[in-house]
Amino acid sequence: MSTTPQANWNKLDDKVAVTGQISTEDIAKIATAGYKSIICNRPDGEGGENQPASSELKNSAQAAGLQFAYLPVEIGKVTAEKCAEFHQLLEKLPGPVLAFCGSGKRAKALYEQSEATQVAGKQEERVTDACNWEEGSPKTYSVPPAQAGEKQTLAACSWDNAFDIVVVGGGSAGIGVTASLLRRQPSLRIAILEPSTKHYYQPAWTLVGGGAYDIAETVRDTANVIPPGAEWIQAEVNGFTPDNNLVHLADGRSIGYRQLIVCPGIRLAWEKIEGIEETLGKNGVTSNYRFDLAPYTWSLTEQLKNGKALFTQPPMPIKCAGAPQKAMYLSCDHWLRQGVLDNIDVEFNTATPALFGVADFVPPLMEYVKRYHAKLVLSSNLIKVNGRDRIATFEVKDSSGQVSRVDKPFDMLHVTPPQAAPDFLRNSPLADASGFCEVNPQTLQHARYPNIFSLGDASSSPNAKTAAAARKQIVIVAENLLAAKTGHELKTIYDGYGACPLTVERGKVVMAEFGYGGKLLPSFPLNPTVPRRFYWQLKVKFFPWLYWNAMLKGREWLTRSTGAN
What we know:
Blueprint: E1 10-11, E2 16-19, H1 27-32, E3 37-40, H2 54-63, E4 67-70, H3 80-92, E5 97-100, H4 105-120, E6 126-128, E7 140-142, H5 148-156, E8 162-168, H6 172-184, E9 190-193, E10 198-200, H7 205-209, E11 219-221, E12 231-233, E13 237-241, E14 246-249, E15 254-262, E16 267-268, E17 285-286, H8 294-303, E18 307-313, H9 323-337, E19 344-350, H10 362-371, E20 375-377, E21 380-386, E22 391-397, E23 403-409, E24 412-414, E25 419-420, H11 423-426, E26 452-454, H12 467-485, E27 498-505, E28 508-514, H13 533-549
Parallel strand pairs: 2-5, 3-4, 3-5, 8-9, 8-15, 9-12, 15-26, 17-24, 18-19, 18-24, 19-20
Antiparallel strand pairs: 1-2, 6-7, 10-11, 13-14, 14-15, 16-25, 21-22, 22-23, 27-28
């Protein structure tokens, strides 16, 4: 199947054109179009199984009478040495030449930076059009006089490490907003900074822990979800210098940007529970908040016939505030169906003063707490686990505010970990007092840096931290960022929408949809507090499909915020 129709070949001059990944089927078309040589700038294996090996392409090219050269360049590493090698290949190979990489942008960067070096020489500092913050600028220009901070920014802004937009985080928010932006403006040069090679659909992990979903269906290779046209830089972020428009990476590089989107998610702070990390995944201790542990939750649930089962919830904020109790409901439903629930002492310990943050949903949830004969302990925070002896220690606050320590034995312990903003964000100038990226809760623009936006779990916006919230926020950020880019008013307003499908039993869900202040924002003309099988079907079948096929691909179905103008 051809991946690079001729319409996508970007002709830079009479001798050179660039394009994205090619296939062996493209070789004949390239030869017919008059090209004499091909340069491969994409490292083998970067695109996963769908990327043909350079040796395979070379054989096809030579069979078609074309020259082929392999000059691999990693994303973010268009160095002066690589540019010099690229120039040497252009001097040696018969033209015209077609160079390619994942999207064509590295190949273009190699050409333009090598040409700038040849024209200007070592005496004149030049940068590419990626560093000119004005639209329609020439491809190279001399660096004008600047203040020290501006010089730092310009020094970082070569084609190897400067982008129109840098997105920090390749989770649901980062991939989704990148896809949406590229659907609006395909010419944008966007980099996604994400260290993980795997991408997860985390909302299904509760179902996995309840025996209702296959864990293998919740993970895909990151390379396969990166939107076409975006650059994936597989690296960890360790800080920001927003005054100079720079993101700093753990490997020492700095990435320049015109606009920045901060969405690295929220960190699981296991270290806040003494002893937990050495006993996770054994001794009856589990958590649906980790990919490798959700199947263990189901294993424990199946095996437990009598004893004590503890479920915990830490202080807010956490991802999906309903997930801790959903784990309890699904386990209890299984025990009820198996006829062993009466032999199991179930207890839900939450550090919060109420079962759920939106009062309208507390009565129907309490009915299930009663149905499962579960003990609800409020203001009870897990602080220590002794896995060997199966003892969990809680700090419990009474009505007068006095705190006491209580040790509780267990046969099964489902732990929801404390959660916090990533350290590189919490310790940066972008953070508010709580460590999250400080934004206007309506526009999601940073409160102090107008070229920065944030969405998802890392944002300070006081909404529920759920994938459903990110799905709505994607539209807000995409439209407002592009408005800010052109100096227009930010008219798209976020109403705080979030959704938590509360799985109260296998086959029924309470669809909690709400916005700022706990205002109910139901998507259907039904009483949202009533458990329904229809919502179960949405949770198990439709929402995962929507996630992989719409949200991550920039298709914004049913995402318009009710606060939009």
